[in-house]
Amino acid sequence: MTLAAAIFPLLTVVAVLTAIHRPLGDYMARTFTAPKDLRVERGLYQVLGVDPASHQSWRSYLSGVLAFSAVGVFSVYLLQRTQAFLPYSLGLPAVPEGLAFNTAVSFVTNTNWQSYSPEVTLGYAVQAAGLGVQNFVSAAVGLAVAIAFVRGFVARRSGTLGNFWVDLTRALLRVLLPGAVLAALVLLAGGVIQNLNGFTSVTTLTGAAQTLPGGPVASQEAIKVLGTNGGGFFNANSAHPFENPSPWTSVLQVILMLAIPFSLPRTFGTMVGQRRQGFAILAAMGVIFLLSLTAVTLAELGGSGTAPQAAGAVMEGKEQRFGIVGSTLYATATTLTSTGAVNSMHDSYTALGGMLPMINMMLGEVAPGGVGSGLYGMLILAVVTVFISGLLVGRTPEYLGKKIGAREIKLASLYILTMPTLVLSGTALSFAVPALRADIDGTSILNAGLHGLSEVLYAFTSAANNNGSAFAGLTANTPWLNTALGVAMLLGRFLPMVFVLALAGAFAAQDGAPATAGTLPTDRVQSVTLLVGVTVVVTALTFFPVLALGPLAEGLL
Amino acid sequence: MSTLTGTPTDSSDSTASDSGHPRTVAAVLITAIAVAEPFLGGPQASGGSEVPASFTWLIALWLWLTVLFANLAESVAEGRGKAQASSLRQARTGTTARVLRGYAADTDPGAHSAAVTEVPSSDLTLGDVVVIEANGLIPGDGEIISGIASVDESAITGESAPVVRESGGDRSAVTGGTRVLSDRIVVRITSQPGDTFVDRMIRLVEGAERQKTPNEVALNILLATLSIVFTVVVLTINPIASSSNVTVSVPVLVALLVCLIPTTIGALLSAIGIAGMDRLVQRNVLAMSGRAVEAAGDVTTLLLDKTGTITYGNRRASEFITVGCSDRRELIAAAAQSSLSDPTPEGTSIVDLAVTEGFVRDEIDGEVIPFSAQTKMSGVDFVNGSSVRKGAGSAVREWVTASSGVVTAELGEAVDRISQLGGTPLVVAVRDTSGKARVLGVVHLKDVVKEGLPERFAELRTMGIRTVMITGDNPLTAKAIAEEAGLDDFLAEATPEDKMRLIRKEQEGGALVAMTGDGTNDAPALALADVGVAMNTGTSAAKEAGNMVDLDSDPTKLIEIVRIGKQLLITRGALTTFSIANDVAKYFAIIPAMFIGTFPGLAALNVMQLHSPSSAILSAIIFNALIIVALIPLSLKGVTYRAASASSTLSRNLLIYGLGGIIAPFIGIKAIDLVLTLIPGF
């Protein structure tokens, strides 16, 4: 493979995102600030009993988020448990309790972790009415919270963050639905299947019998990537030819994953009236993305060992049609957003190469992160960065005119504390409690020792960050992992949202301080560098020991 | 003056809490393990590596040293304060107050016939009226209600020249512990016993009254978060390591935890705060709270009184302007002659200017006519019959016309022009021996802006601080002076209400306002401003309202105060950054050392090539302890602060304390490790 061919997919992604992030970002800013409602929206508000003109405090905004999500978890759980009675269920039985809980939580939290093989567990009814719906609304909830957070910077002493139900509706009807329809059409054109055929038995050329699954794949695939969900129609996810037939559909999926998250900084900049601020956030995300992509690609290209050398490259777990760069690009995009879809098996990467998708998630999925969650995650890091740099220039730190005092830094700190605590304690418990240890060693782990640790660590990192990708070696459909990962997903999604909305409320209650010559600018190369630095150092300090015990120890042997 | 023996200042609040601090707990724990080890068969191997017998003892020793050094930082800072406090206490020696019984303000304001009882100054309460005569110590803080006296305030200001204090007006406040040198005053006590100015000052410099400032609270939250993260990290190491059947020993884990949690900065934070207060006290400024000092660093708008702050307060001659066909030399001579025996600053400044333009002082042969409010002129009637006069335009005009002289329109123009420039015109005229008078010209008197101010204001501007001049002058004059001094804005013909309105307006725009004031009518504005610096010469109302008092009564010191506030914030931020950046190197020392016995490949992470796992861990612990000592001087002195834009300050400090904080421990730990290799077993 020539260098040009290797770089071409990346160049395509960069070119398309450069072209669309401004119009898409501005479109989203308009969507969430426009005073007018569509007729269908007005109808919905009447049914729901919502006054679209009313503004909510952070507490009632949060109540909306939590109530809506609780209903989501409950209904997806119920659908799975009653699958046997539902139409179009391909004759599949009810999903067991533990797995149903895990799956319900997984899709409502935008994680789309799959402890099961979809094609043999879930019928079309649950896929469409449960998971399909959640693919849309979980992304819409993330988007709404991010927009509410941005409103906290815009508000002056109002203390209100907009209306959750309006934001949710608009995110669905004006952003995700049209986007998904468009994406599905393009994917269809690219050869992704879309039918309700169930299983088809065919006889192959060699005469063997084979059962081919069908299904409404293209429609689910579109929102899977656009909404940074990642839950595949098939167990092999985007490595499956029916989901992702060709190198260019793979590139298209990467673009779709990154489209909304990379456009949101523009939305942020436009809404706060300082587009350079949005660009600074975008730049920080872009730098981290490129650094990570370079690292994982080099690790894979330089992979040593007898088997790779014989094969010419580290191709285990990678699809021949995507190649190394097509795989690492997809892996980087899927773990730096909260998608978790895979077109190659991260478990089979070289030890150091496999560490990078893990590190990507440990960064808190902020470059560019999930739909909405990436923006608010990065902005929280920006708040911490501004706090530290404010102390270094001798002023009470302020970001976009909002002072960062004790309450603000407390909420930002809690946000940052949540994910590492979940990851480390979840992993530690899995090995520290003898009964759980026996279960993990006996059932879950494919490879014992260092690589087994990496598999468990990856699972908890993926769950707590609502990513959903897995180190393939792990069997997660066990009582302990279904429960623990479910809890990690729930807390990893909603605790940060609590802190983000509370912080937005604190900012919204403040007046804005004017920028003077003494105000530290936050839209320069300097501040972007610092933001990247803080993001990396915070992650490194937190996860260095555990990485040393897993992938580092394995890779440096 | 009340004695404070009943309320000994107690600084234990800020230090004694160390017994519960993680580093102390760690030291106790490891000592216990070290004691127990010999009975359990020597030190436990950690992470697959054997450790020398003395390992646990050495770790325990250095943990105790860490505790010691951390306490040292605070006690050094407090020690400095105590030295100042003891000199203040001398001023507080108990004295006897002569309290008036039944003081009648209307009939006998001077209290010459009122009954006097003698009570110890410690028994004085709010509202008591005392009388103090020459050579008496003023027994408590108060306000003069009758009389005038010269007072020696050297006990609190260190300034030996006596100052005048009098009833009414803006110089009526007296401070307990100062001495009346002459005359007799009646004073109403304005402070509760034990809460006088000197008492508060003592408590402040001793650090007993130090409350955490908002930024400090926020920083502590961030540091606590880091501590929690690192605790979780360390607690989960053994469970996670058990997946590879590795166990790390408790001393090693504790060593890692103590190295990681921000103990360094934690130990230095209060020292930094105390030292900041101390720097203000050294400059004779008393801050009533640490919050005020910090707010000073945040100030975005400075309100500066024109007189005394921006100008010298006296008008000075700046130019001689001839009118008509008069001779310039004659004008200079006449102006100088008429001012030779005028002792006012205006008069001497005219002579000084004339001398620089070639005038030679000479004996005056004639009668000096002094300035009077009626004539509004001064001058000389010479023996030969001629006279010179200088004075206000209207008065001199009348004098000239009365002596059959002619006043041209040109004079009017010159006078108007000077007025427009904000100056004061003095017209000079002469009457010759024939009795005919004529106007020679005009002397331009103007407010002279203090030297170096435009540069200082430009400096403030780069720091992002707006300067606004407050003056009672008309807008024209104010504008001229503001432009000359390089101020950003001015408030002319300012009344106290105008000042309040300006402060409110600035604050509504999100600005933090600092101002100085001394009069009672300044008090509301001082209270409203975020930083209100009252002059020590001012009224007690002003001193109560402000949150700082300048003992030197120098309004320009406001700029100094802002610098100190900024320096305090930067020192705190710089040391925090340095301390967190240190963790990177400590990780590279300890993590490979922890597991290298089991995973030899981790030697690649041992970038410092430390000698052995034991020496690596011990080096990190020793570095962690020594760096506290090394940073004590910096935390007391404060980091260097240069007026510059926020961006360049950030770049500079990031380079020094951020990058420096990453690199320094790599060098330090390596150096310590080289020394440790000399110990057998390491």
From TrEMBL, chain A:
Recorded topology in the membrane: Multi-pass membrane protein
Keywords annotated in UniProt: Cell membrane, Ion transport, Membrane, Potassium, Potassium transport, Transmembrane, Transmembrane helix, Transport
Physiological role: Part of the high-affinity ATP-driven potassium transport (or Kdp) system, which catalyzes the hydrolysis of ATP coupled with the electrogenic transport of potassium into the cytoplasm. This subunit binds the extracellular potassium ions and delivers the ions to the membrane domain of KdpB through an intramembrane tunnel.
Family assignment from sequence similarity: Belongs to the KdpA family.
Membrane-spanning ranges: 61-79, 86-108, 128-150, 171-193, 248-267, 279-299, 375-393, 414-436, 484-509, 530-553
A GO term, aspect molecular function: potassium ion binding
GO CC terms, sorted: plasma membrane
Protein name per its UniProtKB record: Potassium-transporting ATPase potassium-binding subunit
Cleavable signal peptide: none
Family annotation (InterPro entries): KdpA
HAMAP family according to UniProt: KdpA (MF_00275)
Subunit structure comment from the entry: The system is composed of three essential subunits: KdpA, KdpB and KdpC.
Gene this chain is encoded by: kdpA
Main location: membrane
Localization, UniProt: Cell membrane
From TrEMBL, chain B:
Binding site for Mg(2+): 518, 522
UniProt GO cellular component terms: plasma membrane
Active-site residues per Swiss-Prot or TrEMBL entry: 305 (4-aspartylphosphate intermediate)
GO terms assigned for molecular function: ATP binding; ATP hydrolysis activity; magnesium ion binding; P-type potassium transmembrane transporter activity
Keyword Disulfide bond: no
Keyword Ligase: no
Binding site for ATP: 342, 346, 371-378, 390
Gene3D superfamilies on file: Calcium-transporting ATPase, cytoplasmic domain N, Calcium-transporting ATPase, cytoplasmic transduction domain A, HAD superfamily/HAD-like
Catalytic activity line of the entry: K(+)(out) + ATP + H2O = K(+)(in) + ADP + phosphate + H(+)
Main location: membrane
Region (Disordered): 1-20
Pfam families per UniProt: E1-E2_ATPase, Hydrolase
Membrane topology field: Multi-pass membrane protein
P-type ATPase A domain location: 115-206
The enzyme's E.C. designation: 7.2.2.6
Subcellular location: Cell membrane
EC category name: translocase
Source organism superkingdom: Bacteria
TM helices/strands, residue ranges: 55-73, 217-240, 252-275, 587-608, 614-634, 654-679
Keywords: ATP-binding, Cell membrane, Ion transport, Magnesium, Membrane, Metal-binding, Nucleotide-binding, Phosphoprotein, Potassium, Potassium transport, Translocase, Transmembrane, Transmembrane helix, Transport
Family the entry assigns: Belongs to the cation transport ATPase (P-type) (TC 3.A.3) family. Type IA subfamily.
HAMAP family the UniProt entry points to: KdpB
Subunit structure of this chain's protein: The system is composed of three essential subunits: KdpA, KdpB and KdpC.
Its biological purpose: Part of the high-affinity ATP-driven potassium transport (or Kdp) system, which catalyzes the hydrolysis of ATP coupled with the electrogenic transport of potassium into the cytoplasm. This subunit is responsible for energy coupling to the transport system and for the release of the potassium ions to the cytoplasm.
Protein name according to UniProt: Potassium-transporting ATPase ATP-binding subunit
Lineage of producing organism: Bacteria, Bacillati, Actinomycetota, Actinomycetes, Micrococcales
Gene from which this protein is expressed: kdpB
